[in-house]
Amino acid sequence: MVTRHVNFNAGPSTLPLPVLERAQREFLDYEGSGMSIIEHSHRGAVYEAVHNDAIERLTRVLQIPDTHQVLFMHGGASTQFALIPMNLRNDAGSGDYIVTGTWGQKALGEAKIVATPHVAWDQSVEGRYERLPKQDELNLRPDAPYVHLTSNNTIMGTQFFELPDTGAVPLVVDMSSDILWRPIDVSRFAMIYAGAQKNMGPSGVTVLIMRKDLIEGARKDIPKIFRYGEVAKANSLQNTIATFPVYMVRNVLAWIEEQGGLPAMERHNRAKGEAIYGAIDGSDGFYRCPVATEDRSVMNVVFRLPSEALDKKFVAEATAAGLVGLKGHRQVGGIRASIYNAMPLDGVERLVDFMHRFAQAN
Amino acid sequence: MVTRHVNFNAGPSTLPLPVLERAQREFLDYEGSGMSIIEHSHRGAVYEAVHNDAIERLTRVLQIPDTHQVLFMHGGASTQFALIPMNLRNDAGSGDYIVTGTWGQKALGEAKIVATPHVAWDQSVEGRYERLPKQDELNLRPDAPYVHLTSNNTIMGTQFFELPDTGAVPLVVDMSSDILWRPIDVSRFAMIYAGAQKNMGPSGVTVLIMRKDLIEGARKDIPKIFRYGEVAKANSLQNTIATFPVYMVRNVLAWIEEQGGLPAMERHNRAKGEAIYGAIDGSDGFYRCPVATEDRSVMNVVFRLPSEALDKKFVAEATAAGLVGLKGHRQVGGIRASIYNAMPLDGVERLVDFMHRFAQAN
Question: From the CA of A135, how many Å to the nearest CA of chain B?
Fold first, then answer.
């Protein structure tokens, strides 16, 4: 019998147990093919069926319209920080950046190296980003090649619940840490991108959902391996993709469908968020969340205790109780509970119980 | 009981059965940590131990000197085709390219986009590259920033057994399809790079072995995620690496050490090569290998039958007999048997038996 810890890691992160069990069961002999899925050629019929099934399931789950294409790429979201301006800049420079935390800062940093970007918003208080901008605070250019933002900030614990209006300017969103958390209207996005290792699978593959006209208009004066147009033309098999991560993404999508799709994910995620934020707000100030109430992430819950010594004690005792990965990011300290799709409600309830007991004892 | 086929795929390719069995056994609970290795944070102690163990084992197996550093990167060898000139070009352009097949052509193609390269050798006969150059055929520049070559050509079935002398110019070698096939003197190379999916593991990670002075001198005017200097400084954890592929590479390296290291791999690989080439040369011309005898690859054995119809029949009957992945690459046709480290001698013997029976019957 396997002892399974409750894993609050920010990514790579917990995955649905049935998905792990399926991978284990199929690992030596995938569907009677006489070999592991990881030994199949990326150009063979067996892997290609998995690859296309992943694309079809993502299209179904997110209701991706015909105007958009799904791509798989290497390199994580951080590689997209460079590839987005390389592909989408115009001759005047790169896009408008709404900077709401570390990931937005990094995206802006790479854009500065590629071609001059424009900062549409970047407000930090003592190095922290504890709220998100309102529409009228954004300094957007009507002729920008794109607007970039991060929909959920894993480190700061903020999340956009309403997206800014960018008019006719293509909206490009790093959705690494909240893709698939609830239904969205994909037609509002020119490009969504996300590393797999939070809501979709293990690390090693990045999912892009791009408007076809944006793909077609992407630059062709960069190395071929980096061109969105070439990736799209090759159905993401220009070279060997990380086949195991794509296989796992397919299996996670199958699990989401079995659970009832994104409406079920949203109910499940909101229930978990309410349970933890309820425990924080009902603790008479013992636990404090620094994030503005309306911007509190339901994927990464960030909070602090009355002292750093208590933060440490909390993490140590939680770990001993099988609640792991709760230490806050080194940039902000405190506690962080990452509660992506695969975190069961039971795991959150165990954390909430622990929080009550810890507060009473301390 | 699992029926395991003999898998001659060119990559992703067959992996050692004990390595697959270990991954399956450990999949739900890695070393009692209460979670799968793919659920561990890339910044946590458990994954970091795996990551560093992979580097240490590679260093031991290849006897990598202190002058060199091991890096893991995303994107496959094809991404290096762009990153090498981006990082290593000088103000006059990029390096000298010895083009011995499709992969060299692609590397040259990306270099042309980044900064003017120089062709040191490129001979094809009707689009084929059936032999490798001799030293005196190479047109090398003494002031080139680097010389690039492909040590083994998966499509053409050629392999360098003696490397060209490039003098003081750094030698950069795409060793994707023959790294770890035998002991080498790493000090002769300024940079070795290889996608994992032939001799090292599943697809999703690229291994670089680079001279430290080359890393330090690499360009800093490119996006940070692409800079060799940044990758090295972060011990390849600048962003989230594909953790499962790295874990598998570690396990393949452990298997190589158990087998007796690279001297044992070389004996094993030479025995397999002799068995298949022996069957070809002893077939009275029924099987023909187009490659010059001294350049015949012991990783990818390419041969043809008297007609395309017989090629097809051979592949179909072999597949029915559990010998899969033998169809030649679409560029050259015929048959290709990829016999990397993980291909057991028994698998090659089964192929040789089949070749005898097929030649007699046809």
Answer: 30
**pLDDT band at residue A128 using 50, 70 and 90 as cut-offs:** confident
- Give mean pLDDT, residues B65-83: 98
A225: its two tokens: 């391996």
Confirm whether B255 is a catalytic residue.
no
The residue among B1, B6, B24, B39 with the most chain A CBs within 10 A of its CB, best to mutate, is: B39
Whole-number pLDDT of residue B15: 98
DSSP secondary structure of B32-67: GSSS-GGGS-TTSHHHHHHHHHHHHHHHHHTT--TT
B238 contact residues in A (CB cutoff 8 A):
78
Q: Out of B195, B202, B223, whose CB is closest to A82?
A: B223
Stated pTM of the model:
0.98
Hey, are the CB atoms on B203 and A76 less than 8 Å from each other?
A: no
Nearest Cα to B173, choosing from B101, B98, B102, B86? B98
pLDDT value, residue B1: 54
For tokens 């079920």, the residue is A264
- Closest partner residue to A203 (CB to CB) among B33, B113, B243 is B243
Could you give phi then psi for residue B296, rounded to 5 degrees? -70, 125
Instruction: Give dist(CA A355, CA A351) in Å, integer.
Output: 6
Q: Residues B121, B198, B272, B295: which is the catalytic one?
A: B198
B158-159 vs B152-153, strand pairing mode: antiparallel
Spell out the domains of chain B, with CATH numbers in brackets: 18-258 (3.40.640.10), 260-361 (3.90.1150.10)
Cβ proximity of A297 and A157 under 8 Å: yes
Q: Which residue among B2, B221, B325 sits closest to A29, beta carbon to beta carbon?
A: B2
Which listed residue (A96, A178, A181, A198) is catalytic?
A198
CA angle, corner B66, sides to B64 and B71, nearest 5?
A: 65
Q: What angle do CA A11, B242, B205 make, to 5 degrees?
A: 170
Task: Give the pLDDT band (50/70/90) at residue B124.
Answer: confident
- Residue B232's φ and ψ, nearest 5 degrees, are -65, -45
A-chain residues within 8 Å CB-CB of B18? none
From the list A20, A34, A243, which residue is nearest B27 (CB)?
Answer: A20
Find chain B residues with C-beta within 8 A of A33's C-beta: 5
* B154: nearest Cα among B101, B99, B206, B110: B101
- Please indicate whether residue A330 or residue B277 has the higher confidence score (pLDDT): B277
Q: Which residues of B touch A47 (CB under 8 A)?
A: 12
Q: Is the pLDDT of residue A67 over 90?
A: yes
Whether pLDDT at A188 is above 90? yes
* pLDDT one-digit tens code per residue, B265-275: 999 999 999 99
The reply to whether residue A243 touches residue B202, judged by beta carbons under 8 angstroms, is yes
The answer, yes or no, to whether residue B91 has pLDDT greater than 70, is yes
Is residue A223 within 8 A of residue B114, CB to CB? The reply is yes
Chain B interface, best mutation among A1, A38, A177, by max B CB count within 10 A: A38
Q: What was the pLDDT predicted at A174?
A: 98
CB B197 within 8 A of CB A240: yes
Full strand arrangement of the beta sheet holding B147-150? B68-73, B206-211, B191-195, B171-174, B147-150, B96-99, B118-122
Give the C-alpha distances (Å, rounded to integers) separating B331 from A67, B157, B327: 34, 12, 11
